[in-house]
Amino acid sequence: MLTAITRKVSSALAKCELSFIERKPIDLEKARGQHHAYEGLLSELGAQVISLPEEPDLPDSMFVEDPAVVLDELAILCPMGTESRRAEVPSIATALEKYRKLANVKAPGTLEGGDVLRVGKRIFVGSTARTNPEGIRQFTLLVERYGYDVTAVPVTGCLHLKSAVTFLGRHTLLANRGWFDWKRIEGFEWTDVDPSEPHAANVLAIDDSVIVASSFTKTRARIESARFHARPLDISELQKAESGLTCSSLLFEA
């Protein structure tokens, strides 16, 4: 069964880490309402949602994608590139150990799940300020024994690789190709974000549906023109915390 691990929005969200956007005031209750709607849409699309309790002292803890990478065979816990976020890992490990064997990337390696794009047995890992070459090396050693092919992809224009490219389905990627070395990712069809919406590439595909931030209307039209079923969702308050659609869940088959 498709399972989604999420976490309630932290009371400290306004103190979240920001790298590529300007800090703006965040309406906490509105953010919580949008996150609740996100969980509701995951459930509507067939996921069993496991919502972990709030971590009030960890501002970025709702972004559960970053502390772990969940594959069919194992879950890999990540020493995140932002030291202040590393306290998020133990509770994620506890939640995942019911479903997967656990492995670890270890310091001085750093790795964040937002940099890991998996399409079948191909995995692309962003080389960013959050994920370093040693982290990619260790990750590769952990997964190649299960038949995965790993490609490192330099990222220059955004926080994570999946800020710039995500999988739509049917061998098609949605991307802002100005933000990463897209030529490292071969053998796919491309749908490009609208130039006026550079942050629109982070979408979440579940079966035949693609969840897209409702603010990105022009990119949504491009997704629909490529014959994908777009499901718009308002995450405007969460976007102030540098959020996309993949960031707030860990999706896997239980």
Can you put this structure into words, describing what you see?
- The protein is α/β, with parallel strands linked by helices and 254 residues long.
- The protein has one domain: L-arginine/glycine Amidinotransferase, Chain A (5-stranded Propeller).
- The protein contains five helices and 15 strands.
- The strands form five sheets. Strands 2-1-15 form a three-stranded mixed sheet, covered by helices on one side. Strands 3-4-5 form a three-stranded mixed sheet, covered by helices on one side. The chain has a three-stranded mixed sheet with strand order 6-7-8, with helices on one face.
- The radius of gyration is 17 Å and the shape is globular.
What top-tier CATH class fits best? Answer: Alpha Beta
Q: What is the number of strand segments?
A: 15
Number of helices: 5
Instruction: Characterize the biggest β-sheet.
Output: 3 strands, mixed
Secondary structure elements and their pairing?
Layout (H helix, E strand, L loop, with lengths): L1 E6 L20 H17 L3 E5 L15 E3 L3 E4 L11 H8 L4 E4 L11 E4 L2 E6 L5 H12 L4 E6 L10 E5 L2 E4 L13 E4 L11 E3 L2 E5 L3 H9 L3 E5 L2 H4 L10 E4 L1
Parallel strand pairs: 1-2, 4-5, 7-8, 10-11, 13-14
Antiparallel strand pairs: 1-15, 3-4, 6-7, 9-10, 12-13
